[in-house]
Amino acid sequence: MTTRRTLLGAISALALLVSGGASFAQEAREIALISKGFQHQFWQAVKAGADKAGAELGVTVTFEGPDNETQVDRQIDMLAAALSRNPAAIGFAALDSQAATPLLQQAKDAGIPVIAFDSGVDSDIPLTTATTDNVAAAALAADKMAELIGEEGKIAVVAHDQTSRTGIDRRDGFVNRIAEAYPNIEIVSVQYGGGDQLQSTEITKSILLANPDLKGIFGTNEGSAIGVANGKQELNSQVVVIGFDSGAAQKGMVESGLMNGAITQNPVGIGYETVKAAVTALDGGELPDIIDTGFFYYDATNMDDPEIAAVLYD
Amino acid sequence: MSTIATSDRPSLLAGIRSSGAYHKLLAFSGLIVLLVVFSLASPNFLQTANVLAILQATSVNGVLAIAATIVIITGGIDLSVGTLMTFCAVIAGVLLTNNGMPLPVGVLGAILAGTVSGLISGTIVAKLKVPPFIATLGMMLILKGLSLVISGTKPIYFNNTPGFTQIAQGSLIGSVIPALPVPNGVLILFLVAIVISFVLSKTALGRYTFALGSNEEAVRLSGVNVDRWKIGVYALAGSVVGIAGLLIASRLNSAQPALGQGYELDAIAAVVIGGTSLSGGRGTVLGTLIGALIISVLANGLRILSVAQEWQTVVTGLIIILAVFADILRRRKL
Predict the structure, then answer these.
(1) What residue in A sits closest to B158 (Cα-Cα)?
(2) What residues in A contact B260, CB-CB < 8 Å?
(3) What is the ipTM of this complex?
(4) Percent of chain B with pLDDT over 70
């Protein structure tokens, strides 16, 4: 019988632990954020922004997301559990808009306001969307790339994927800007590394080996950009690298000059604006359709400016 | 599975222990403890809507875990259940959405795709003598790739097949008893559990499944066509995975081609928490069902209590080790 007693003991110890935490958390209005991911630094920065707004506005913020951005059903389970808690409002970054529709309807029926963040939801239920204008952000990357290579020569794109909204918007934003504004720049290759550092490294190396005269590469998210810079380093290449997002590794690369510069979104702002919009909705205030949370170009020269340093994250 | 080992301290519980029921009791009491603890900790936990959400969240992993149980009892393993589930969902999508076939064709197509894939895995294991771990690891990747190829890397939606979402999301029970809208996905999970329990305990295939896991050589020497039964086991598991594919596709109203990898580990976790031995010869569908429920109750309960997500993962890991350790202690004492 020792075994069962041990099990019971362990579980009740655990229960004490969690119920202690829970009773403490139940004092304020709860804003439940269901994100697309969790352990990735970008999402942790969104969480940091949300927590900051929660502390300022006096609401409790919870933050959850699936292990990776393919687990649509896990995200739905998280949304269902969050609804069961009866939160005051919900923030939601949909992996798949359609799959979430029944639960969003349930939230609407229960009078729980829904705020979309990071990417839009194909539905009129969310009151607003706090997001980055990825097309414009990638166009800024194109301008910086053109400036650094002297507005002529061959370049390439290593993108994170061809299906997600951010993947499509950043690729198209970059490619279209080059096509419109820089007739002497040729994009020789657009390849997809799934946002995986190692895969993006291999892709970069093959592009560089196939195009010895290549002048620049754009990596469309944190994993892609780090992969591109690693590929450049492994081949001892001098190619210009423009990245996207931040994170400790990418910041280090920009600092050392391995990466010439990068676009950063404002994930802290995304989290902050989401919670703020939720509170506005709860207090009966007006909200715009889209809350543009902004983006910035950073390189070794401006990284330490207070305005830029505030939106960079580890 | 040496439950006949002697004990110098015979106890009243010996009978229950040796029948294997004790482990189910252990897992079951673990589940009850979790339910009680979470109910006391949060008034939102034991609400009908939340209990239904837990059951709904269990349906896919439960069906996958039942498929994994069948193979694990033979002493094998099936790492391809997660991506095969996705593959079957994609097949349903291709038949229903891309080709406009009627609903029953899509349902049968998905289950058939699972069965055929199981036949192939079983043949690779039985005839080519590739270890199950490697054979199904290969199949896992093949199926993942094929799902992406066939779907063109995009989700396939079922908007043109109105009845499709009803498979998991509708509620037959709810249409009779409005106060109890148990989703059909949950009914299907229990139905699959009953059918597979029956197959394992009452049919020749079931008897050989256990015999292969206990002592394959003895079965072979007694003149049984081991390969044929083994292929049958993998095919049966495959068809069960096909049902899981339908459930997840219906739940999401789409076949998501990139999803699936990693789901085999949750299924295997449910199997071992439920007391099925990874070395084969011992296991029950009921145990697996309880194991799957423990995983989703834990996930849901910790979320209801707003426990930080990183700690949720730690706790789940601890529970898996604790459950299997309790099982080892139990057998050491016998």
Answers:
(1) A98
(2) 70
(3) 0.73
(4) 92
